[in-house]
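As a representative case, the lines below give one protein's residues and fold tokens.
***
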Amino acid sequence: MTPALRDRLLALAERRQALLDELVRRPRGLSWCQEHTAIVDDAVSTVVAEVSGEYNLPFCVVATGGYGRRELSPYSDVDIAVVPADEDPSLLDPAVKAFFLLVGEAAKLLGLELGYMFLLISDAPGLDAKSRTGLIDSRLIAGPAETFGRLLDALAETMPTGQFILHKIRERQDAFAKYHDTPLVSEPQLKEGAGGLRCFQTASWLGIAVGREALRPSRDYSFICRVRNCLHQLAGRRQDILTRTRRDEIAERLGLDPYEFGSVVCSSGLTLTSAFEEATRNLHESRFFLSRGVIAVRGEARVLAGADAGEAAAGIAIATDLGLQVEDVRVTPGSQISGSAASYAVAHGEATLRNLDRAGLLDLLMPELSACRTLISRDNAHTFTVMEHTLRAVRALDSLEPGSFLGNLKESLTDRQTLYLAILLHDLGKTDPDRPHSESGEVIAHEVGSRWRLRAEMVDTVAWLVREHLTMAKFLRLRDIENPETIREFRDIIGTAERLDLLTLLTWADVKAVSSSAWTTAQDAFLKNLYEATSALLHSGETAVESAPAYRQRLARQFQNEDADDADVHAFIDSLPAHYLTSTSPAIVRLHYRLAEKAREGDATVEVHTQTELGATEFTVCCPDQPGLLSKLLGVLYAFDLSMLGVRASTTTSEPPIALDVLTASLGGRVVPAATAQQISKALYAVIHGSQSVREILVAHQKDPDLAQRVFSFIFVPGTPSVLELRAPRGRGMPYRFSRKFTDLGWNILAARVGQWADSAAAAFYVEGPGGRPLLREEVEAALREPAAT
């Protein structure tokens, strides 16, 4: 910066300071802003002149936003755009760099924040709503007027009116939610809150978008500007919330009673809010394009004949969100489908989808979904037809709001279109009864993606979600999600954090839409736990879980500071099975150590813990081991009509062997009442000590102790331990009957997950053969194909 330029800018800084000082003596509104803007104009023009002296200025400088409206408050941002006359960067680079460097230094000398953008005229079609808003109020400061005129023409020609209007209304709604949705507050946000300047500005922008003249600032608008100017000057920075302290200071400066002044601010805010509300109402009386295929005429959305079906869908989506009426007639758009517009539309949710269906567009976009309108699912868990279930899954997703685990997860998504499209497609494979619907649905997903000409990456993710849409629900119902090996297995299926987010939301929405009782409190907790554990593993980059020997060493070190004999601690830890060590927290291990100490003396312990987040109760049993113990415990819980959620069974290798069994169950989907839990505890003690048999307890509760589990299906997953997934007609006795069967076979149950799925029960038992050896597929198939034990 040359000394002469610096001197000129310092002189302008002095003028600006004098203008700030004047606000103390004579508070003003818009007239002050206009004088302040003129000083900044002089500074920018001075910089332009300096750059022009060295370069033939190949661009125009444009004031945007509040600077463009000549409404600069004391500490408003100064926003400018540089628009080149020629789009060859080689001709622009030196001059643009010199200008941005100097204008940035000029802003610092004046004590202002500068915001700037470099804009090619050819960028106009892709501008977002925020950038367009700033350019609506633009004016030329320097450079060729012809270039500025071309920019304005390009902006008008490429204006996506419907999307712009929707964005501005949502912007106001978001601001109301963040600050306040009424101007009748004691500490108003003078710019963004209800009754703030942005309400009036948005009203003007909405009018301009539909072809009306810009609104002229009113007396109330100027008054709020006046208050904001004083607030900035008092704070010495940009501050837009009128606190009580600042209210009193400004009232004194204006010679008003603080409370009278506060009432005047509220009154002016009401007028500005009314301007915004009137502008939104006027939209229903206006004629404007919602998209290239849909026009709004006096509150009704009309699809034009021959329109691109995707563009038409996007117009209907915008119309739905604006509350316009969608014509209830069949339209005849062309055969073309703009996939980006179509995916934009379907991500707008259930209301849009039902309007698309009414207008006949949904059938054009996705005839595969229409084919499922009356299709009854072969899984009797479902209340609705496939198409209705799909739309209700979308409804569930629509209902999520920030503040909850799933609501925050949805809010964090960078691409909701992928999720909504996957939900629409996830069950369409059910039209083919001869294949698993997740497999045939994956094929349909690729076909729709090709027809819509979507990005390959998006299609791959949607197809993956459709193929795996049952996977997470299966893990929740059937797998031991406390076991790190389970988390590692699930992580390997998921692959990326993005897919984990999407599948988590899809899983919840899918199950939620099955029936009113399909999703439970326990599943809520399991879903969050599985998500968080998998997310942690994905972000840590770990490829394997901690080994049992390493965990034994770590536990032993943690016990060193405790009041316990080191030798006894080491012996206890060494006696624990590997599956217990890798899936039990140190705090629980400490508890179990103390319980095991009592058990070694021959005492049995039954502890009851309420798991409120699961809507369940946990029964921990620690006692000397005995044959068939787990089957006896499950028989007692069955006698009391409890629904099993999970079982963790462990036996130490010490002498005598100690059983550590944790059983999680609910009563009617809720925690077990204290009185009932006490009765169950007494019954558990009775069967442990042999003072009463399981048979006697079952008979006393009118249960058939000899009833066999004859109808079921199973899947065997070999391993150490093996996993045996079972599905049977719904009934609380299924875990007991299978545990009795496994006991008779000499198998050892290490853990189990049990869940109800509408009209059926599902369970996964983690089992090993006699002596801890792995089970073989042949022996499992032979054993389970025999009549069940009686």
Observations:
- The radius of gyration is 35 Å.
- The chain has a mean pLDDT of 89.
